Amino acid sequence: xxxxxxxxxxxxxxxxxxxxxxxxxxxxxxxxxxxxxxxxxxxxxxxxxxxxxxxxxxxxxxxxxxxxxxxxxxxxxxxxxxxxxxxxxxxxxxxxxxxxxxxxxxxxxxxxxxxxxxxxxxxxxxxxxxxxxxxxxxxxxxxxxxxxxxxxxxxxxxxxxxxxxxxxxxxxxxxxxxxxxxxxxxxxxxxxxxxxxxxxxxxxxxxxxxxxxxxxxxxxxxxxxxxxxxxxxxxxxxxxxxxxxxxxxxxxxxxxxxxxxxxxxxxxxxxxxxxxxxxxxxxxxxxxxxxxxxxxxxxxxxxxxxxxxxxxxxxxxxxxxxxxxxxxxxxxxxxxxxxxxxxxxxxxxxxxxxxxxxx
Length: 359
Fold this sequence. Notes:
Purple Acid Phosphatase, chain A, domain 2, elongated, 2 domains
């Protein structure tokens, strides 16, 4: 019951039908057992009952799947079940005004599922880095986490390649379903950098043999590894922490020791919580993703949930500085997969085109 279809479509449609059936069945039973109650009271009780049942189911399952089930329940009730009920009452009682809130909820559904997930922001920014002799251009992408490529992804490719970056950083989360491997490999082959493209693994990448997957794409997997690259701007160190290592300070110290002296050291980690791991160490900037900027945000409030231990302001994305360390968090390009609703609100997908500039 969405404006999209993907490999998880059959399962998600089944869940949407079950959630909607629960709501309608509770409304029907309430109307029969409590005939004196007003229609609004019956519907409110049915809504609360459906929410309680599915929240308990999500809590019982636990983890990201349980959380995704609860999120799907709220989205389905608000943008499918309630509009259907309003349309039913409008037809039965011949009250066309009831169609207005139904249409408003459907407009919200279209905005969250179609418009905002494709409303790409291309952010250009400059940060000053002491020790560099010339500017260095780099592109930062994260959380591709897609169910298939489309026009927005083609625009990402055009913008990144048009920038002609020295480096491309991809900070994890490649795709939502293994059936997409050939399509995404072909897509990633289209990215071009002058001196190197680097990747670190994310939460959804565990099922991929990363080095094998990226072999043909031009990206170097940098989990627990580093590269020392001489450029006209100076010597750059690029260090990567894999998903399981973002909190491993000893490993980071070991990698930095092996790297040796550089003019600037750039750390890649899917999770922005690595900023604590890098605190006080000779790291110039941390590049991360993971949070999707919250993915679902509210006006004047920001991210509802970030699934991160950093502050909500940092998790929302952007360029921050903490104790001399640049913390650069991309809102990413994709959406949470599996049974989660594919939704963004007030949180458009993003690529970062950055210039490291000498002081």
